[in-house]
């Protein structure tokens, strides 16, 4: 059984600064892993920063872990018993007549939240003073605020994250669209632009603490291995 120690927030808060190229390098790997999982007929259901681990402190290769909540794709994907509020999609949290079915798009929402956190340093729908109910209402009803994202961010990154955080899962980005998005392009010009956009890790440290405190109250499965799901 493989063991990994450093999660995505730990990596990006280890130093004082990081750049957009490093963010995109991680996001494309997550999108690729989700594309494969969805192709195999499963939805992960628990994409969050603490479940994305690096192979080593020297490597930028990531692994998705904690498949305890994963489900076979069907017409009736079950509601998670204890969803992690910070990473849950609107369709998981809604209980009213406008509730829609849970699909693979719930994983894309979580990917969007991670991307937003890395680009802005803030959670798109939560702050330290918010109650769980306030966070839930924000996720369901409020649009993410692109103005929270640092001004130096590329236009492509803003388009990517706002598409991934569409409230309506039918309008939300799919994994194939994420993988072919201009922001994640390996075009030399785009790579260079991403490399020149730097972010301070100070705000992200506070968000990492905020989301980690929720994990302490709702511990994940002990089975956090990075081995194959299928």
Automatic annotation (TrEMBL):
<dbReference type="InterPro" id="IPR011009">
    <property type="entry name" value="Kinase-like_dom_sf"/>
</dbReference>
<protein>
    <recommendedName>
        <fullName>Protein kinase domain-containing protein</fullName>
    </recommendedName>
</protein>
<dbReference type="GO" id="GO:0004672">
    <property type="term" value="F:protein kinase activity"/>
</dbReference>
<dbReference type="InterPro" id="IPR000719">
    <property type="entry name" value="Prot_kinase_dom"/>
</dbReference>
<feature type="domain" description="Protein kinase">
    <location>
        <begin position="1"/>
        <end position="184"/>
    </location>
</feature>
<dbReference type="Pfam" id="PF00069">
    <property type="entry name" value="Pkinase"/>
</dbReference>
<dbReference type="GO" id="GO:0005524">
    <property type="term" value="F:ATP binding"/>
</dbReference>
């Amino acid at each position: 059984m493989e063991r990994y120690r450093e999660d995505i927030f730990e990596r990006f808060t280890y130093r004082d600064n990081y750049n957009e190229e490093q963010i995109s390098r991680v996001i494309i790997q997550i999108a690729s892993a989700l594309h494969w999982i969805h192709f195999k007929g499963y939805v992960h259901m628990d994409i969050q920063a603490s479940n994305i681990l690096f192979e080593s402190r020297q490597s930028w290769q990531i692994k998705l872990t904690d498949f305890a909540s994963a489900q076979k794709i069907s017409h009736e994907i079950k509601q998670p018993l204890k969803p992690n509020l910070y990473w849950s999609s609107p369709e998981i949290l809604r209980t009213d007549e406008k509730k829609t079915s849970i699909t693979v798009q719930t994983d894309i929402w979580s990917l969007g939240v991670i991307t937003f956190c890395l680009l802005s340093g803030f959670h798109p729908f939560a702050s330290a003073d918010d109650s769980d109910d306030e966070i839930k209402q924000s996720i369901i009803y409020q649009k993410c605020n692109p103005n929270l994202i640092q001004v130096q961010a590329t236009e492509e990154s803003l388009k990517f994250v706002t598409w991934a955080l569409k409230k309506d899962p039918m309008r939300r980005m799919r994994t194939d669209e994420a993988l072919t998005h201009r922001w994640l392009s390996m075009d030399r010009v785009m790579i260079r632009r991403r490399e020149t956009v730097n972010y301070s890790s100070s705000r992200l440290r506070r968000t990492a603490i905020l989301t980690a405190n929720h994990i302490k109250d709702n511990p994940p499965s002990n089975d956090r291995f990075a081995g194959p799901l299928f």
